[in-house]
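Format notes (please read before filing issues)

Several people have asked whether sequences and structure tokens are stored in separate files. They are not. Every record keeps both together, in the order shown below: the sequence lines, then the token lines. Line labels are part of the format and must not be stripped during preprocessing.
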Amino acid sequence: MFRKVLVANRGEIAVRVMRACEELNVGTVAVYSDADKHGGHVRYADEAYNVGPARAADSYLDHEAVIEAAQKADADAIHPGYGFLAENAEFAAKVEETEGITWIGPSSSAMESLGEKTKARTIMHEADVPIVPGTTDPVTDPDEVRAFGDEHGYPIAIKAEGGGGGRGMKVVEDESEVDDQLESAQREGEAYFGNDSVYLERYLEKPRHIEVQIIADEHGNVRHLGERDCSLQRRHQKVIEEGPSPALSDELREQIGEAARRGVAAADYTNAGTVEFLVEEEPGREGVLGPDANFYFLEVNTRIQVEHCVTEEITGLDIVKRQIRVAAGEELDFEQNDVEIDGHAMEFRINAENAAKDFQPATGGTLTTYNPPGGIGVRLDDALSQGDELVTDYDSMIAKLIVWGEDREECIERSLRALREYEIEGITTIVPFHRLMLTDEMFVEGRHTTKYLDNELEQSRIEQAQEQWGSEESTAADEEVVEREFTVEVNGKRFEVNLEDRGGAVPQAASNGGSSTAGAGGPPQSASSEGSSGDVEIQGDGERVDAEMQGTILSVEVAEGDEVAAGDVVVVLEAMKMENDIVASTGGTVSQVAVEEGQSVDMGDTLVVLE
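Then the structure lines:
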């Protein structure tokens, strides 16, 4: 077993992994950016190292910085959690090549073969796993898309090779959209995965999203731990996950589970992963979907997933601990026949978003009240404490509420009770939305599909739920906080010195090779990324087009001197895994472009100036 594990992540998943390490008597190391210096995962770890500024590319995604931190800490393993570097085969290979450090996850070669979707489709097809009709080679020419449409019909899904979770996927409704959607998918693929290769699939209009949790060791053992139903999604982003699926017959779930095992075994895969499928819904069906229902391979997530907790609750198996044990060379300690599904579980993503405003991410705030629910069957995965400030540089999910019941009906009742108990003040969250869904007829009956939220649920119901049960964001003027903890860094390592005053005059720490991470009086420093447009001097008094939210510039559609009309797109901004067209509210001539492709911006930053 390992002596010390560095967790290359942040927030609740970092704490989740560290808890598993604690139970295995393994030391824990956190990494953190400047924006996360007060983060819950930093407080929980045995030791912590700063890996750079707030911008993820300069900290959590910096391969060398993370590996160097592991070496400084004398860690003998790295666990990536999910997101950030978790599915980065290049980073995994670097860890594998680093003497004395083990990668806790599938091999870099397995990640590469399953991470590129066309390769994964080929592997699954050869393993007799059903795949959606589509291409197995990358597509570059719009005429190839049109030819596919002529053969299979519209709509068509154009997907980035390295994409996932809806990022890098565009839907072509008819031939007129081919050129724009192909270019958009390629642009997203290049911006987020360094790979503009895309492939095509027949787009299933109203499927269910079913995924199978698998775990495999280095001794040839592959187990599946049942399925999760992740059909309640917004723009391909999961919102509520549950297990087992309320829509599958036992015969169908066994077929899907065995297909997942075959595919993973064919890929020579080890450690934890998830095989995702789309199951065609049968309109007007009575009862559950039978063994003749069509299901198709979607993708493999070569990591632990956000919703792994659902499977843990219904199987009683700690997946993260088994990840660590498998990486240490141990053999799985159970047979497939030992896996029993007990009861029903649901996971609610507690996102700092306003569902009534198109799930707009919160721009800041302080947890003035934080009182999580408890009781039998209630689990809370978070990294929060009352008084914490919201970090907006990364994902908007701040916690996960997982609820178990003896059956789905009890699980829903218990979930409603837990959500009513969940007191969060100072930050807007989607708790009211979750309460609404647990009383929604389609969801309660288990007949929702991946399109339900986007196409069928009335927006007015979400607005009413937010008004009835929601809370407002706090403002800086309301906050007067005095902390008694002083944090310093020495050679990048974090230390606590029991004294800090955010609002008062605290002496600046001085130490060899280190710098203070605590405030020294005056206003706090901005957590915005280096290179944001806030650093650019804006010229003239023209009409400014500002960023409506924090995000990353995908493309700049105008240049200085261009004439634009009201409604023209000037910049494409990615936020929360979605492309957002930033348009000019008035016409004019572009006098200044203050941003460039790939740059991070904060809400309110000026992007373009019009004269």
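For reference, the curators noted about this record: The CA atoms of residues 348 and 573 lie 27 Å apart. DSSP finds 16 helices and 32 strands in the chain.
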